[in-house]
């Protein structure tokens, strides 16, 4: 009589143990993505001065842009794939794929080969985030979906910081290829752990089991998650999320790329300009920790609108040359709201869509947002070229943040099906 309850308890314990691995494994995968997406910025100063590569800033921009295009294509493609074949297999495949291609970058003989390898690596890199967000949202404790998402995204910034630190330690004694080799080493541990410990999405397993008992036409319809994004009242939220994600990533990449140079054009010394970039990213980490807690308390929709609105205010404030510590406080506050506003968009997407289309919804929002990631540096560079980056660059970025808030407003009420 006691055998059955013991078996049930054992099964429940095993499931709980598997669930406990989801967040640390996904966080580590996102940290690797942060490393790989920032590593070019660390090695590029060396490549630009390597006479054997004959690389100029324009060519370097092409290499970076090609890699971002790969990330965009990967984000758009991998979300639907994960919703069809399963998130566990997709996560393992994307991490293994971009790690192998990152290692290959260490042996690139010229910019053309490096750009091609970065594009291919970007296909996997773009897929990691939507799958990780979908899994973490599904396995988040009740009432903590927003904070689970924002904590996950701290992995990106930790990976970025580690990239800079490893660049200081490795490039001088070992050369730039060592950075790509170092970025591959963690995958030797992570991929086996993903294989052994990462559980499959419970919603995916339930859907697959239910589909086995229905006719083939029903399964064909349900296995196309893209249709869900534009049916049953989801069309307007889908487009509105795309707008907000585009604006959010435009701000993230535009500011990270050009903030030091914009502040130099405003008359700040190089050391102060670089310190302001560091302060901006410290604010990003603080904002990620704060935004999720606030969203859990007041709801993700008002929190996201409020975060974009605050970003609008503090970006506009940066157009005023403040004395002393004032500029550092302003940049810190801008970082708190700019970066986490985009992450709250992801949290909102993961909570609004049904489980069978969650990966697709996150993938398309991330993929369309990558167009903003490309546009941000281009806009900042054009303003600098025109000599009006300060103060007009901050006015432009403030308008972009306001449009991000408007996009979230346009999401409207959740469809009844959600």
From TrEMBL:
InterPro entries: MFS, MFS_dom, MFS_trans_sf, Sugar_transporter_CS. The keyword Cell inner membrane does not apply. CDD domains: MFS_PcaK_like (cd17365). Keywords: Membrane, Transmembrane, Transmembrane helix. Its main location: membrane. Residues 22-416 form the Major facilitator superfamily (MFS) profile domain. It is found in: Cell membrane. The keyword Protease does not apply. It is a multi-pass membrane protein. This is MFS transporter. It comes from Actinomycetospora chibensis. The lineage of its organism: Bacteria, Bacillati, Actinomycetota, Actinomycetes, Pseudonocardiales.
């Amino acid at each position: 009589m006691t055998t059955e309850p013991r078996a049930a308890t054992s099964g429940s314990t095993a499931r709980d143990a598997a669930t406990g691995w989801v967040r640390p494994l996904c966080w580590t995968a996102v940290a690797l993505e942060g490393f790989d997406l920032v590593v070019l910025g660390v090695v590029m100063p060396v490549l630009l001065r390597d006479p054997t590569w004959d690389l100029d800033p324009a060519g370097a921009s092409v290499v970076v842009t090609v890699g971002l295009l790969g990330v965009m294509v990967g984000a758009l493609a991998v979300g639907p794939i994960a919703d069809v074949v399963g998130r566990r297999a997709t996560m393992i495949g994307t991490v293994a794929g971009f790690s192998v291609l990152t290692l290959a970058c260490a042996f690139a003989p010229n910019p053309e080969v490096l750009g091609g390898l970065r594009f291919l690596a970007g296909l996997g890199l773009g897929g990691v985030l939507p799958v990780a967000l979908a899994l973490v949202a599904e396995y988040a404790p009740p009432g903590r979906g927003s904070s689970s998402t924002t904590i996950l995204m701290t992995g990106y910034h930790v990976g970025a910081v580690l990239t800079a630190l490893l660049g200081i330690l490795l490039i001088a004694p070992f050369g730039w290829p060592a950075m790509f080799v170092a970025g591959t080493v963690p995958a030797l541990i992570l991929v086996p752990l993903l294989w052994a410990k990462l559980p499959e999405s419970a919603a995916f397993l339930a859907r697959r089991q239910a589909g086995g008992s229905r006719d083939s036409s029903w399964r064909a319809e349900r296995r196309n998650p893209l249709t869900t994004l534009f049916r049953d009242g989801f069309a307007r939220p889908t487009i509105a999320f795309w707008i907000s994600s585009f604006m959010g990533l435009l701000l993230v990449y535009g500011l990270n790329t050009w903030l030091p140079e914009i502040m130099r054009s405003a008359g700040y010394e190089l050391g102060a300009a670089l310190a302001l970039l560091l302060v901006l990213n410290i604010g990003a980490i603080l904002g990620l920790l704060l935004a999720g807690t606030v969203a859990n308390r007041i709801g993700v929709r008002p929190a996201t609108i409020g975060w974009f609105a605050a970003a609008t205010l503090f970006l506009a404030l940066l157009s005023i040359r403040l004395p002393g510590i004032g500029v550092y406080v302003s940049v810190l506050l801008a970082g708190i709201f700019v970066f986490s506003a985009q992450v709250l968009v992801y949290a909102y997407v993961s909570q609004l869509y049904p489980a069978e289309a969650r990966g697709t919804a996150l993938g398309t929002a991330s993929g369309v947002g990558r167009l903003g990631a490309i546009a941000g540096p281009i806009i900042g560079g054009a303003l600098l070229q025109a000599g009006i980056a300060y103060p007009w660059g901050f006015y432009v970025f403030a308008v972009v943040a306001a449009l991000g808030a408007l996009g979230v407003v346009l999401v409207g009420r959740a469809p009844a099906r959600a």
